[in-house]
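Let us work through a complete example step by step.
Step 1: write down the sequence.
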Amino acid sequence: MVMTHFKTASGLGYKIMLLIAAAIWGLGTVVIKSTVDDFPPAWMVGVRFVIAGVLLGVITLHRRRTVDASHLRAGAILGVFLFLSYWTNSTGLTDTTASNSSFLTTLYVVIIPFLGWLITSKKPTAYNIVAALVCVAGVGCVSYAGASGFSLRFGDLITLLSALFLSIHVLLTAKYAPGRDMTLLTVIQFLVAGALGFLIGGITETTPNFTTLSTDTLINLAYLGVFASCVALLFQNTAVAHVDPAPASLFLATESVFGVCFSILLLGEMLTLPLFVGFALIFAGIVISEYLPLRAEKKIAANQKSPEQLAPMDVEAVLGELDELGESSHQ
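Step 2: predict the structure and record it as tokens.
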């Protein structure tokens, strides 16, 4: 009984770690939104990831893994797309709300299967197709501007571009991670992204005067570098090793929900009915894309059946899974 209680408490602790990581990232969007008008986007990315790279490098120095050409090359490529995703995301926040940014960015989850199709020729599943349709409907609601019709602002479009870059980064991470030290890859890509931030910021943006920065700006930059990068990443990597993939993906998907909640509480943003419906649809799309396939795979394993023995999943089956999920969430 003691061991059972320990395992249960431990599992709950790891799930809480995932929620904390999601909350840290959700708050990070609000922090960027409140800072980006006073501190240019590229420079912000540079400061953020240099802090994160140096801090993570010092923490993991005891590993003393030799930095070879393979790690440098893979880390540099990942760093380029990490920079592009966060630069466009931060730039988008100059012309959209933190709430919009939180949910539009998470569309990378839905983009990945279709982008992967172009690279690996592995066709998207019915789950992926339904999720994409639901998310498109959600984006339509987000872009609804009442009597003036449908429109996406420049900031919204740039944020969608950041979701595309983020999906490329995820696919490349899956390609380069096997056989390499992921911690070392992370340090290298952080430092490359930070260096690119300083380079692009120096060319395209006004150089900030670091000696006159307000205390709030310094705290925000420290939060992004320490908590939104190193701490949240540590929590995620620790917890996903002890939590089943299906619930883990669902816990991490709450980042967008935390982003909206913090936007309303701290920035005073208003949540209109079309926005609420749009956010709900996008979140439902993420659940369909991430949670339901993993849940289906778990059922296959439990029944000791191979995927080939099961009939292809159709739209009605997906909706049936959603109804079941909705019922279980009220218990």
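Step 3: interpret the result. Residues 3 and 9 are 10 Å apart (CA to CA).
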